[in-house]
Design goal:
With 301 residues, this protein is mainly alpha-helical. It contains 13 helices and two strands.
C-alpha cells in the first residue's frame, strides 16, 4: 500500500529536521547561549563581601546600571568616533584598490593572472599578530627603511599623532585584506556573461569603459557583501592597534570598543564588559542594516 500524502509529508519533515538539527544545535550552543549569558552578566555586578578580605564574590543584580555607565563613559563613546574615522579611511581605500586590481586582472591584457592572484592573497595568510609586529618595525624611525625614505623625500610621518595612528592601522589592515577581496571580486567577474562584454566591444567601448560601465555594475552584489563584512570586521578592530600601540602613543586602552571591552575584562568588570559588548553588537547590527539598505537603494537607481 503506497504511503498517503500526509504520511509522505511527515517523512519529508522528519528528514529535513534530521539534517537541520546539527545546525540549530550548534547555533544555540555557540551563538544564542553566549548572547543569553552575556545579557545576564550585563544586568549584574560582581561584589565581594567582607570588605574584599577573603569573602566569596557574588553576582548582584544592578539592572541597567552597567549600560548607563557604558553610555555615559566618554572613553567608550570616543572609541566609536575613532572607529568611525578609521572606517571612513580604510573601507573606501581598501575596497577601491581591491576592485581596481580585480578589474585589471580580468582585463584582456593581463598576464600571469594566477601568479598575481597568489601574490596579492599572501598577506591575508599572515596572522594579524605577526603582520602588526612587522608593520610596527616598519613604523619605527631609525629602524624602518620606509620611514628613512619618507624623511629623505621630505614627507613627514608622525605615528604619535591621532591622524598618524589611524593611517598606520588603516594601512596595515589594507595590506592584509586587499588580496582577499581581490579574489572575491575576480571570482565574481568570471560570472559576467562574455557575450555582454563582446557586445560592448563591438559597440566601440574600450577596456576602461567596459570595466567601469559593464563589469563593475554587474558585480555590485559581491562588492556590497565585501563592504558588509569589512564594516563588521572594522568595528571589531582589536589586534592591530593592540600591537601597534607600542609605537603609536596616541592609541590608548579605549582606542576602539574592543580594546575598551578588553580592559574591562582585565579589571574583572564582567558586567560592564558584557554591557559594552551588547552595545557594540547593536551598533554592528544597525551598521549592517544601513549598508544593505543603502545598497538596495543604490541598485534601484
Amino acid at each position: 500500500m503506497p504511503p498517503t500524502r500526509s504520511g509522505l509529508a511527515r517523512r519529508q519533515y522528519g528528514v529535513a529536521a534530521l539534517f537541520t538539527a546539527p545546525f540549530f544545535l550548534l547555533f544555540f550552543a555557540f551563538t544564542l547561549a553566549p548572547i543569553g549569558y552575556g545579557a545576564w552578566l550585563s544586568l549584574h555586578r560582581e561584589q565581594t563581601s567582607g570588605l574584599g578580605l577573603g569573602g566569596e564574590p557574588e553576582q548582584v543584580f544592578v539592572g541597567l546600571d552597567n549600560f548607563t555607565r557604558a553610555l555615559t563613559d566618554t572613553q567608550f563613546l570616543g572609541s566609536f568616533v575613532t572607529v568611525g574615522v578609521y572606517c571612513l579611511v580604510y573601507i573606501p581605500v581598501m575596497i577601491g584598490i581591491a576592485l581596481l586590481l580585480a578589474l585589471l586582472l580580468d582585463s584582456a591584457y593581463a598576464r600571469a593572472k594566477r601568479f598575481f592572484q597568489l601574490a596579492l592573497y599572501l598577506p591575508n595568510i599572515v596572522p594579524g599578530l605577526i603582520a602588526a609586529m612587522i608593520w610596527t618595525y616598519l613604523y619605527t624611525p631609525g629602524l624602518s627603511p620606509i620611514i628613512d625614505v619618507l624623511e629623505q623625500a621630505g614627507i613627514p610621518f608622525n605615528l604619535g599623532s591621532d591622524a598618524g595612528a589611524v593611517g598606520a592601522v588603516a594601512n596595515l589592515t589594507t595590506w592584509m585584506h586587499t588580496g582577499y577581496n581581490v579574489i572575491i571580486f575576480f571570482a565574481a567577474l568570471q560570472a559576467v556573461p562574455r557575450e555582454v562584454i563582446e557586445a560592448s566591444t563591438v559597440d566601440g567601448a574600450g577596456q576602461i569603459r567596459i570595466a567601469w560601465s559593464v563589469k563593475a555594475p554587474m558585480i555590485r552584489g559581491a562588492v556590497v557583501l565585501a563592504v558588509l563584512f569589512t564594516v563588521i570586521g572594522a568595528m571589531q578592530l582589536f589586534t592591530e592597534p593592540f600591537i601597534v600601540r607600542d609605537a603609536a602613543t596616541t592609541i590608548d586602552q579605549a582606542w576602539t570598543p574592543s580594546l575598551y571591552i578588553y580592559q574591562l575584562t582585565k579589571a574583572y568588570d564582567m558586567g560592564g564588559a558584557a554591557a559594552a559588548s551588547l552595545i557594540l553588537t547593536v551598533v554592528l547590527a544597525v551598521a549592517s542594516f544601513l549598508v544593505t539598505r543603502f545598497s538596495k537603494k543604490g541598485a534601484a537607481l
